[in-house]
Design a protein that fits this description.
Oligomer: heterodimer
Largest interface: A-B, 23 and 29 residues
Largest sheet of chain A: 11 strands, mixed
Shape of chain B: globular
Strand content of chain B: 15-25%
Radius of gyration of chain A: 22 Å
Helix content of chain B: 25-40%
Radius of gyration of chain B: 18 Å
Structural class of chain B: alpha/beta
Structural class of chain A: alpha/beta
Number of helices of chain A: 10
Distance between the termini of chain B: 21 Å
């Protein structure tokens, strides 16, 4: 404290504005009737409603999990509204019909969806509260046979694909939050890349929570058919509000023979204020199945937002010679809490996994890495490499590491490295003595610490991630 | 000793400097003047305050100046933040150089050079021109360019860290270089390289203050003035022959002769 840590004020959360837009909101509360209402609004087939109801009935019997190293008051699930949508419902194919306020909102967030301003080489699906408002470059993608659309649309247009894969990686009763999501999910993205196709551009979804007292429950399903490749990125933000908001998403990835999926996240939900008021509860289930031989799924996440993060993107390595990767940077400042990591389940022979986790704690932030590496009996010659590094800024924050290892095949090779370091006065003084300003020194030290993860991000977003990290840590060192 | 109106002020003028760390006074009245073009050696036993003096001049926050003055080119050095001192041309070669993971030597050096250039109102150097300029400097310490892509001091041996400090010195080209025991932990060849580099960087308009424990390095570099720091004060100053005398007699005899006050 003597060195001025936490002495400066935090730069206000940059994405905290509210869009004044007339919304159609379903009254708070959860019941079978509410689920029927959501399903009807989305004009869903009967099988989808049945699936939701099954999930709901299971969920009612499940206890909320509390094993994570995070603390929060009870969540009143009946006080949350499970559906909010801008009233002027856009026609998905025509941007002229999208409310200009929505276009403006995404523009302000740096996600231009208007034709003339689009990011070259990046197709965007923009999700606002419970609905997808626009998906860009659809025609271009269709030429290659790539389907990229809102999941609600996919349920209507591509029911066979959705029925085959939805819930096949994260079952409707997988865990408390996944079951809740299965019952009430409203929108999200759907991607299908056909056999042998290398998706010609980065796909990206931007999630925006706007409405008050609503939850966001999006569901994403990505299928990479044999020999295909896709890189997908998601970003998110929310307005500043005093009350906590729940975000419980489910992401399922399926990679068939020789297919590759690269999934990157830049998570910047509202983190709450210095005293821990408000912020998003980010309780997310993400899992990929490397179903085919030589398939590969790579998760990269940069988690800077949310009051609480509970998230373990994992890989089920079913196919022989398949590869799972997890690269993570998690930042907790002020009163933020993160309990995040991964699960690598080795089933096939010669399966490999790599885990690189970087946790940065500042202020009174608490950062936990929790990871499971499981080598099943049939996974001969499986290999895992894990590296967990923690960095502490100041003396009131915490870093925790819980690596779980479960090996049932003696031919497996496991490596685990861990380190904890503190940004010390000496490091900052050294950089200052070479002429660098304190904030540049901190940003340099932190970026150097995260380098192994940043280099996994698509180029366009690596810069954004570095910038975001600078903002999240602003004021954490004097 | 103070400059006459016509001559520019001394590069460094320390007067009756007192400094404490963790509430314990370590410097107890240091007075010392360094002119441009000079090389000073500050010697002394362990715990005499040599490193403290170096750190105080660079502005390390753990040290508190309790009395005295330091003028650098006539300005109050102590009023400047550490980064401002650096940008004004004060360089400290650290006794224990700090590692920065994931940041390459080249990146770090360019950030430093550009921070200093910005301060002087000069244009920022691009990657290509910077790398070109760097090639020359590498030769000074006998390194190839592979060291540039290694992370700053990360995984460096003790000797490599010290050489890296000299590389930074060569690149940043300061007016006042303070070398804090850069010679300790070096083998004979490395010592020669470092000594040679320091000599080759000397110009009529800059100065070097060499803080050292050992006579060794002074067989390669001839100091203009040798000071003995003991008990937080300079107890004796002299020419290079003083260093030789210390080598033969040790420091003990000076302690007894320490001036009163």
């Amino acid at each position: 404290m003597s060195s001025g840590i936490e002495a400066q004020v935090l730069q206000p959360y940059k994405y905290g504005f509210v869009t004044e837009i007339e919304a159609e909101v379903v009254a708070p509360g959860l019941s079978e009737d509410v689920i029927r209402t959501i399903s009807a609004k989305k004009v869903e087939p009967a099988w989808m409603l049945e699936w939701r109801l099954r999930a709901y009935r299971q969920w009612q019997r499940m206890p909320e999990p509390h094993w994570a190293n995070v603390q929060y008051g009870p969540i009143d699930y009946q006080a949350i509204s499970y559906y909010a949508a801008p009233k002027r419902r856009p026609q998905l194919d025509s941007l002229e019909q999208v409310d200009p306020k929505l276009l403006e909102t995404f523009e302000k967030l740096g996600i231009p969806i208007e034709e003339r301003k689009r990011l070259a080489g990046v197709a965007v699906d923009a999700v606002f509260d419970s609905v997808s408002v626009a998906t860009t470059f659809r025609e271009e993608l269709q030429k290659h046979g790539v389907i990229f659309c809102a999941i609600s649309e996919a349920i209507r247009e591509y029911p066979a694909l959705v029925q085959e894969y939805l819930g096949s990686v994260v079952p409707h009763n997988d865990n408390f939050f996944a079951a809740l999501n299965s019952a009430v999910f409203t929108d999200g993205s759907f991607v299908y890349v056909p056999k042998g196709v290398r998706c010609p551009m980065e796909l990206s979804t931007y999630f925006r929570i706007n409405a008050e007292s609503t939850g966001q429950f999006e569901r994403t399903l990505i299928i990479a058919d044999a020999g295909s490749y896709v890189s997908y990125l998601e970003g998110c933000s929310a307005p500043i509000r005093d009350a906590n908001q729940l975000h419980a998403a489910v992401v399922e990835l399926v990679a068939l023979d020789d297919a590759q999926i690269k999934y990157s996240t830049i998570q910047n939900w509202y983190p709450g204020d210095e005293e821990g008021r408000g912020g998003i509860y980010n309780f997310v289930t993400k899992r990929g199945a490397c179903r085919g031989r030589r398939s590969k799924i790579s998760w990269t996440q940069v988690e800077t937002g949310s009051a609480i993060t509970w998230k373990y993107p994992g890989c089920i390595l079913q196919g022989d010679d398949s590869i799972g990767e997890f690269y993570s940077v998690a930042v907790t400042n002020h009163r933020q809490q993160a309990d995040t990591g991964t699960k690598m389940i080795h089933m096939g022979k010669n399966t490999r996994s790599t885990i690189v986790s970087k946790g940065i704690s500042a202020g009174r932030g608490q950062n936990t890495y929790r990871g499971l590496v499981k080598i099943l009996k049939g996974a001969a010659q499986a290999r895992n490499y894990s590296q967990c590094d923690s960095m502490l800024i100041g003396d009131r924050c915490g870093a925790h590491t819980f690596p779980y290892i479960d090996v049932r095949n003696s031919t497996a090779t496991m490596e685990h490295e861990a380190s904890t370091s503190k940004i010390g006065e000496d490091q900052i003084f050294y950089a200052k003595q070479r002429g660098l300003a304190a904030e540049d020194a901190v940003s340099m030290i932190v970026n150097g610490f995260c380098k192994e993860v940043f280099k996994e991000l698509p180029m366009e977003f690596a810069v954004e991630a570095q910038r975001l990290l600078g903002i999240s840590l602003e004021g954490s060192v004097g | 000793m103070t400059g006459r109106p016509a001559t520019p002020p001394s590069l460094l003028e320390i007067r009756d400097l007192h400094a404490a760390v963790e509430g314990r006074e370590v410097l107890k009245g240091v007075t010392l003047t360094v002119q441009r073009g000079e090389l000073h050696a500050i010697m002394g036993p362990n715990g005499s305050g040599k490193s403290t003096l170096a750190q105080v001049l660079a502005g390390h926050p753990a040290y508190t100046v309790t009395a005295g003055q330091v003028r650098y080119e006539g300005r109050d050095l102590l009023a400047l933040a550490p980064e401002e001192r650096a940008r004004e041309g004060v360089f400290l070669a650290f006794q224990y150089p700090v590692a920065i993971r994931g940041i390459t030597n080249a990146y770090f050096l360019r950030a430093a050079v550009n921070a200093i250039r910005k301060h002087r109102g000069e244009e920022q150097l691009g990657l290509v021109e910077f790398m070109d300029a760097l090639e020359e400097k590498l030769k000074v310490i006998g390194w190839d360019s592979s060291y540039l892509s290694r992370p700053v001091n990360d995984g460096f041996s003790g000797g490599e860290k010290k050489r890296n400090e000299i590389l930074q010195l060569a690149v940043l080209n300061p007016k006042l270089a303070i070398l804090d025991e850069t010679d300790s932990g070096l083998d004979i060849d490395a010592l020669k390289t470092v000594a040679h580099a320091v000599k080759s960087l000397a110009r009529p308009d800059n100065a070097t203050v060499l803080v050292t424990h050992y006579y060794r390095i002074l067989t390669h570099i001839t100091p203009d003035v040798v000071h003995v720091l003991s008990g937080g004060r300079i107890v004796r100053s002299g020419g290079k022959e003083l260093a030789l005398e210390l080598e033969e007699r040790g420091y003990e005899w000076l302690r007894e002769e320490a001036p009163v006050g």
